[in-house]
Amino acid sequence: MTMGLGTRGSRFGSAEVIQIHLFLGFIIRLLFIAYGEHRDKTNTLKYTDVDYHVFTDASREIVAGRSPFDRHTYRYTPFLAWVLLPNVYIHFAFGKLLFSVLDCIASRLIYELLIRGGQSKLTALKVLLIWLYNPLVIGVSTRGSAEAIMAVLVLLTLYMMRIRFTFLAGIFLGMSVHVKLYPVIYCLPLYLSLTSDLHQHHVWSKFMPTSSKIQLVVGSMVSFCGLTGLAFAMYGEQYVEEAFLYHLSRTDTRHNFSIYFFLLYIGADFHIPGLNLPTFGPQMMLILALGYKFSSHTDVYFGMFTQTVVFVTFNKVVTSQYFLWYLLLLPLIVPHLTVTWQKAALLTVLWVLAQLAWLVPAYLLEFHAVNAFVPIWLEGISFFCCNVGVLMALISSYTIVPSNDHHSSRKNR
Prior knowledge:
Elements: H1 15-42, H2 50-63, H3 78-83, H4 86-89, H5 94-116, H6 121-132, H7 135-142, H8 147-162, H9 166-179, H10 187-192, H11 203-207, H12 211-249, H13 261-270, H14 280-293, H15 300-313, H16 323-327, H17 330-333, H18 341-368, H19 373-397
């Protein structure tokens, strides 16, 4: 039994209905932004994300003629601070409005990808709503996290792949890796997905370059090297250290969802060098295995989804913003999951409850100074097991629906 995404009633997927939903989605975000502005002024527990203040402070550094990296803890592309200059010149909430608009654009891109993938208008509309009205998505963007930028860049990469503009797909892929490093894991499945069906079962043939693969690689290198080179020319080694090298050597001992949190927290007291490096091993092996396994053009969305879940779940630092990285790809695979609504609801409830169980001791530690490190660690293990279990359930429920393009479909399980 599938999740029941029907094909009737094309009028429900009409342009007018889509525009209404996008408008309502944006209005909801405006209300949350207004609420956040009020709460920040009247409550000690602020609504706005700390990172948003970091972005804005970095923009102020630019206005003052200095480097955005002069703002302590700013470890992002410098162009983000440039984009958010209106936070300083116009209004503090400009960035939140921008991220909300990008959320809506991402929703429309999800719809277009599903339509071009052979789904009905009604199915595409229902799946679009999973992202547009997702409370976590709304909360993250309206609190000022810049994940909506990544969402649009990743979806534009997939859209260009879908309409076979592979050079432009490479451009957007390179841009996304420049902005935030994690999309580099998508290079393998995207590259292999351009292999013709005749060569899918020959290992070495899948890696052989073709015109489309070369365009993807060249486009990626042009945009990534161009943007990174420009940033280096502007801010030198300070940019390389803060935006790149920091993430490779990062050991975050503040409490977070990661299963490695307590290990790194204790290890910091003993000054064990290189303790964070072994955490990459299981993560990278699984990412490469899943990227290769689900690398067919019919499987690539699911391959990217599973890669992202593994990347986040096994990462040495995990925050709630990271969940958006795989929730973005979830709508693209929903039509291919043979799972009942009851099972889908059960998996969702388990995932949410596992987060809430972690948040209780984290709240006690953060706001009441209760020594809750061990409970946080145990809840982190529970959340890790929950994520692995949900991923296994989705893999077992995954099946390929024949596509409508000129490629033949196949089941890759």
